[in-house]
């Protein structure tokens, strides 16, 4: 278990959570305390450069590689009461490859279904089905784990 994994777990602590969050930021990981996640969560290779949107929900057994971004595709629009909706929901047993970007629009719920693999450097802009493999820019379905 890496120090980043330990700090994400510690960020849930009421007393030391803020310090753990700041330590993560100093290590190059933006993982807000508001993110809902289930254990086990693996930040592979320290996940340096990881950025996770504050309204993201992450399932169990998820692996996030370095350079992954889970965020908004329309970030130039300021978040107001009317645009502060939408989120990314990451299902159980999902792997998001190094440098991949998963981007949702305000008001959209983008779901990465259970068992999905998002390839390295992919740019995922739409929801996936269970056990699918997505790659490319923009990402498209290139296979399934069951085949």
Topology record:
Layout (H helix, E strand, L loop, with lengths): L2 H8 L6 H10 L9 E2 L3 E3 L7 E2 L4 E2 L3 E3 L4 E4 L14 E4 L4 E2 L4 E4 L4 E4 L4 E2 L4 E2 L7 E5 L2 E6 L3
Parallel strand pairs: 1-4, 2-5, 3-6, 4-7, 5-8, 6-9, 7-10, 8-11, 9-12, 11-13
Antiparallel strand pairs: 13-14
Which strands sit side by side, in order, in the main sheet?
A: 2-5-8-11-13-14
Termini separation (Å)? 31 Å
Task: Name the helix and strand elements from N-terminus to C-terminus, one letter apiece.
Answer: HHEEEEEEEEEEEEEE
Task: List the domain count as a whole number.
Answer: 1
Helix content: 10-25%
Rounded to an integer, what's the Rg over CA atoms?
15 Å
CATH topology: UDP N-Acetylglucosamine Acyltransferase, domain 1
Parts with pLDDT < 50 across at least 5 consecutive residues: none
Under CATH, the homologous superfamily reads: Hexapeptide repeat proteins
Helix count, DSSP H or I runs of 4 or more residues: 2
The CATH architecture: 3 Solenoid
Biggest sheet, open or closed, and with what strands and sense?
6 strands, mixed
What is the class in the CATH system? Answer: Mainly Beta
Summing up helix and strand content along with how strands pair, one would put the structural category as alpha/beta
Mean pLDDT: 92
Key structural traits:
single chain, 147 residues, alpha/beta, UDP N-Acetylglucosamine Acyltransferase, domain 1, 2 helices, 14 strands
Structural summary, described in words:
The structure is a single chain. With 147 residues, the chain is of the alpha/beta class. The chain has one domain (30-144): 3 Solenoid (UDP N-Acetylglucosamine Acyltransferase, domain 1), CATH 2.160.10.10. It contains 2 helices and 14 strands. The chain has helices at residues 3-10, 17-26, and strands at 36-37, 41-43, 51-52, 57-58, 62-64, 69-72, 87-90, 95-96, 101-104, 109-112, 117-118, 123-124, 132-136, 139-144. The strands form 3 sheets. Strands 2-5-8-11-13-14 form a 6-stranded mixed beta sheet, with no helix packed on it. It has a 4-stranded parallel beta sheet with strand order 1-4-7-10, with no helix packed on it. It has a 4-stranded parallel beta sheet with strand order 3-6-9-12, with no helix packed on it. Helix 1 packs antiparallel against helix 2. It is globular and about 45 Å long. The mean pLDDT is 92.
């Amino acid at each position: 278990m890496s120090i980043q994994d330990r700090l994400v777990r510690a960020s849930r602590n009421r007393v030391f959570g803020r310090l753990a969050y700041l330590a993560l930021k100093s290590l190059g990981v933006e993982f807000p305390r508001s993110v809902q996640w289930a254990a086990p969560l693996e930040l592979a290779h320290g996940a340096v450069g990881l950025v996770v949107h504050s309204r993201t929900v992450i399932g169990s057994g998820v692996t996030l590689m370095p350079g992954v971004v889970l965020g908004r595709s329309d970030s130039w629009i300021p978040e107001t009461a009317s645009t502060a909706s939408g989120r990314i929901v990451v299902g159980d047993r999902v792997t998001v490859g190094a440098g991949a970007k998963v981007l949702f629009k305000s008001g959209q719920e983008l779901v990465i279904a259970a068992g999905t693999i998002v390839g390295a450097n992919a740019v995922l802009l739409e929801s996936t089905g269970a056990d699918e493999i997505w790659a490319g820019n923009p990402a498209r379905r290139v296979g399934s784990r069951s085949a």
